[in-house]
Design a protein that fits this description.
Rossmann fold; SH3 type barrels; 6-stranded mixed beta sheet; alpha/beta; 2 domains; single chain
């Protein structure tokens, strides 16, 4: 296959997997970076909150029906959770928390907004690129005065399995950390307490918690589920404001438990 054919085959929106990783993760091409030594695709996970890059030559198109089947499984899981929630809803007299959710992924933002709406939760969802979240968080907090803040999108370790304590080894963790710091400054200035979840796939968990998040991903540097941040926000929002909520009470609801999300009580 010539380079001209490759250029035509892979473009923004192409569904693909990395051959060198046995196509273990389904990606959507976000953009193509043209270079003298070859073209590089910036990839975002379709089911997981992961961002990666790959030489065009290492990509292989994934059949649309395979992607649709996996999205259907995700949709079914969300639906099952909604059904369980609605059965328990009779015991919940009121909702206690207002949610502000910043998401770096447009499609995830839309799915998250739909999920909150179906739950009947008071949530504002904004699609904000990870590198801009810190610059807008104070304005959004002032405007909406939420009780819960979700700061998420895509992330990944650049060199998997090494340099866990090097912030430069993470794609977007530094942006999540800066956004948490800005949110805590706003909280101190305005005397309005907020609970914070921050992070995505393989995020620098310890640094995000140290910056002030109550809950964060990913303690074991694994790929977290799309729904994990939503579950954390939902559990906080439906817990009485006078009760402490611990990570232990949320873990059973998460696909990978403490490997995917950790935190302190809130």
């Amino acid at each position: 296959m010539g380079r001209k054919d490759i250029k035509c085959k892979f473009e923004k929106g192409t569904l693909s997997g990395r051959k060198s990783y046995k196509k273990d993760i389904m990606f959507r091409v976000e953009r193509i970076i043209r270079g003298k030594k070859g073209n590089i695709a910036i990839l975002k996970g379709i089911i997981h909150r992961i961002e990666a890059d790959s030489p065009i030559e290492d990509l292989e198109v994934i059949d649309k029906w395979i992607v649709e089947e996996n999205i259907k499984k995700l949709t079914n899981r969300l639906q099952e959770r909604l059904q369980r929630y609605n059965k328990q809803k009779r015991t919940i007299k009121e909702y206690y928390g207002k949610i502000l959710h910043l998401d770096g992924d447009k499609k995830y933002s839309e799915k998250s907004a739909q999920y909150y709406k179906k739950l009947g939760l008071n949530a504002i969802v904004r699609n904000i690129p990870e590198n801009r979240q810190a610059s807008v968080i104070s304005e959004l907090l002032t405007r909406h005065k939420p009780d819960i803040v979700v700061i998420t999108g895509h992330d990944a370790m650049i060199k998997n399995g090494s340099n866990y304590n090097d912030i430069y080894n993470y794609r977007n963790s530094k942006y999540f950390i800066n956004t948490v710091l800005e949110a805590r400054r706003w909280e101190e200035k305005n005397k309005h307490e907020i609970a914070i979840f921050a992070g995505a796939c393989q995020s620098f968990f310890e640094a995000i918690i140290t910056s002030g998040a109550n809950f964060a991903s990913s303690p074991s540097r694994i790929l977290i589920d799309f729904i994990d941040p939503l579950i954390v926000a939902e559990k906080i929002a439906t817990t009485d404001e006078y009760k402490y909520l611990t990570i232990g009470e949320i873990v059973p609801e998460l696909r990978d438990g403490l490997n995917g999300v950790g935190g302190i009580r809130k």
